[in-house]
């Protein structure tokens, strides 16, 4: 049961509260996870992020900066949001949830089946994370591999990635379900070949992962035939059987999704 609810009005105050209250305190953004009946953590204290700002989407010469408290629906409706990111955000169920859920809350939830994290990793997104002592930048690809509770203040996409092709795909049981599998791939086109591919998959491990071996096999090389590409991807994932599907099905389907992205774009 939540015993106390805090409403800080600055980033500094929010962090100081989190440090004081410790592991029994959670930040609260849109609350679509925290207020969910099945949310595994039962915090004693909630620290609302509503009053600390971080709702702007801004650009500099080098990058686009998304405040952590920007709503997913606002991202969809903003001209600075790259189209490839809008495609991923649209997969997230419906407008009702997108009008509550924040980008920071989505990233911090760090779900394996996230519809957005694979595309963000494929475009080399970085996070600005603030602690009492420092503000640091961390690649999202590295963030997802660790359990972290530091305050995310921004999600940053460098404009250098805008010259890459970024595509994504998912497998969903029905239009209203959370995805079972997600794939996002980015690359630089070079004739019939691709360079510097980033291949990211969700739903096949505890968190979203990059398939480094697949990336190395594709980089600057002649594109394998479709069946070989499907197998290459399938051979590089080790999903588990659970309520969402068998390991064999996920292994097979993730290969099909990845190949369809490279052969149809
Ligand atoms: C009905 C429903 C359907 C959904 N469908 C989909 C779907 O189709 N696809 C999909 O990918 N996801 C789906 N989700 C998940 C949804 O995307 C996430 O729940 C949402 O994006 C989380 O954002 P939030 O702002 O609501 O986070 P909150 O619930 O407020 O917080 C989630 C976690 O993040 C932490 N947190 C929040 N903000 C920050 C911050 N700035 N820094 C550090 N930690 C922070 C909180 O402490 C908490 O641990 C669904 C959720 C629901 C309830």
As a whole number of angstroms, the C-alpha radius of gyration is: 19 Å
Number of strands: 12
Bound ions, cofactors and other small molecules, one mention each: flavin-adenine dinucleotide
Strand order of the largest sheet: 4-5-8-6-7
Total of domains = 2
The ordered string of helix (H) and strand (E) elements is EHEEEEHHHHHEEHEEEEEHHH
Question: What percentage of the residues does DSSP assign to strands (E)?
Answer: 15-25%
Describe the sheet with the most strands. 5 strands, antiparallel
Low-confidence parts, pLDDT < 50 over ≥5 residues?
A: none
Helical content, roughly?
25-40%
Looking at the overall shape, the CATH architecture of the largest domain is 2-Layer Sandwich
| Helix/strand class | alpha+beta
Total number of helices: 10
- Fold-level CATH name of the largest domain: Uridine Diphospho-n-acetylenolpyruvylglucosamine Reductase, domain 3
Give the overall shape. globular
Terminal residue distance: 49 Å
CATH class of the largest domain: Alpha Beta
Overall pLDDT level: 95
